[in-house]
Amino acid sequence: MITFENALDAVSQLSIDQQEMLIDIIRKRNNELRRKQILKECRDGLVEYRSGVLKPMMAEDAIADLHSYLDESEDA
């Protein structure tokens, strides 16, 4: 298994152009993984909505719920 430090050492041995290409490739892969994660979360949300776990609500109510949740998270 490659450690983070080993990966950094290997990258530092690449030319600047190769490092920039690597950064671009990693960024694109990361963006694609994030898109897939967002898609899964959206699909999960739709399943919950369609099954009745999630209920429709007004935007103001949703925002109030989010504020309440964030306040509870800060207290924990």
Uncertain segments: none
Shape, per Cα inertia axes: elongated
Structural class: mainly alpha
Work out the radius of gyration. Answer: 21 Å
Largest sheet: none
The mean pLDDT is: 94
Q: What's the tally of helices? A: 3
Number of strands: 0
* Beta-strand percent range: under 5%
Helix content: over 70%
| Structural domain count | 1
Spell out the helices and strands N to C: HHH
Distance from N terminus to C terminus (CA atoms, Å) equals 36 Å
What does this structure look like?
This protein has 76 residues and is an all-alpha fold. The protein has helices at 4-12, 16-50, 59-75.
Summarize the structure.
This protein is mainly alpha-helical and 76 residues long. It contains three helices and no strands. The model has no long low-confidence stretch (mean pLDDT 94).
Layout of strands and helices, then pairs:
Layout: H1 4-12, H2 16-50, H3 59-75
What are its keywords?
mainly alpha; 3 helices
